[in-house]
């Protein structure tokens, strides 16, 4: 199916309508449409507000579920514009999920989607992480996102994380992923890299700070060594230990094969006494650092 280029409001509304028609015809609902901005998710949901994707029975179930869920809020909070707007969309089987929504609203959307009552969900990456809610199909509104500095193409790991939502275990033999080329069509090499590239390697951001050490000293049950041992960075360090040992063994072997040469090799500007004095200072500085670290940990 070909769609026209451009992103004026009429074109985008028309293109979205055609896409939803195809999804319904091919029995690919429920679907998640990933758009990489909160504003875009809200706009796309408003485009199809007039559509009704649920039966009368489903509307009643959605109404009861929302009433029970939002009853935990204070009286004035139950009538917030955001909650009223989301409830109206949910009754029609349309959901929105992004970080701009209240936590309780996101939770309600997630649970209704898991129940199969939300047929079309417009979401940012927030729904791809940590939510076990697969769909029959996934649609990418775009393959480009803003990472806080500039617009870039999705990384292979990001694409895989979101595309992996397509296909419900035990219900679908396979999942369907659609890339909506409403703007420029991605190049062949770009798509190949996106689809077959390796996953993004996770890196630990754990850093032991002095404040953290002082706070741990106040807790008898937790030791600093225990926290480090449980960190994700330590897991990687232990995994890399065998290769590090092998590298050290090769380095030691290479050192033993070197020929010793008497000082000085040539008439340089440094005398042997100066080099020895520098080495002594370095060793003393290391000992002082270890002494201070030991005092902090006592």
Automatic annotation (TrEMBL):
Any one biological process term the GO annotation gives: nuclear-transcribed mRNA catabolic process, 3'-5' exonucleolytic nonsense-mediated decay
An example molecular function term from Gene Ontology annotations: hydrolase activity
InterPro entries: Helicase_C-like, MTR4-like_stalk, P-loop_NTPase, RNA-DNA_Helicase
Keywords: ATP-binding, Helicase, Hydrolase, Nucleotide-binding
Gene3D superfamilies assigned to the protein according to its UniProt record, in alphabetical order: 1.10.3380.30, P-loop containing nucleotide triphosphate hydrolases
GO cellular component, one term: Ski complex
ATP-binding among keywords: yes
Keyword Chaperone among UniProt keywords: no
Lineage: Eukaryota, Viridiplantae, Chlorophyta, Chloropicophyceae, Chloropicales
Residue intervals of the Helicase C-terminal domain: 15-217
Residue runs in coiled coils: none
UniProt xrefs under SMART domains: HELICc
Organism of origin: Chloropicon roscoffensis
Name assigned to this protein: Helicase C-terminal domain-containing protein
Short name of one Pfam family: MTR4-like_stalk
